[in-house]
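quick one, 174 residues, struct below
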Amino acid sequence: MSEPLPVFANGFFIVQENGVFNEMILFEYYDPGGYYVSVLSDQNRLDEELETLSRNMQFYLDLEKVLVNGSESPPTVLNVSIGFRGDTRRPYILFVVTFKGNLVKGLNTYENYYEEEVAEYDYEVVWVFPSKARVVEADLGVPYKVEAGGRVLRFNVRKGTRIRGFEKILFEID
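---
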């Protein structure tokens, strides 16, 4: 049975006024060998796979250093699920991750330090900030757009792009 191949990913960050950051990471695969169909057909295998996926993601999150306003805010895997996009050869894995920082009125800073790498597939990241917030500046290593009056920040990374291992977003809260 051939390994599923990653083809695309989305990262959605929802920032709440109380300082909770909810992150949904959706990985899409091409799976002609039916690995995930076989996993989902057996509850014990599914439970093991979900536990392994959660543990592996947490391992990588633990290697990152996330700072909100200079204080460490370690991300935690809250949930993981597996499904299909209309075809059993197109599975996805969805991770729900959360972390908390102390936000203040005025300028706030999110920073993430992680291992430098080369993107193995295309991905898109979307940040949504609270209604009283707006993005002031970002340092992501790739071009980005700020939309919806400053509340939405989005960027795309193409396969083969060198990711330098650092992100910083400055946002203001009224």
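The helical segments are 35-40, 43-63.
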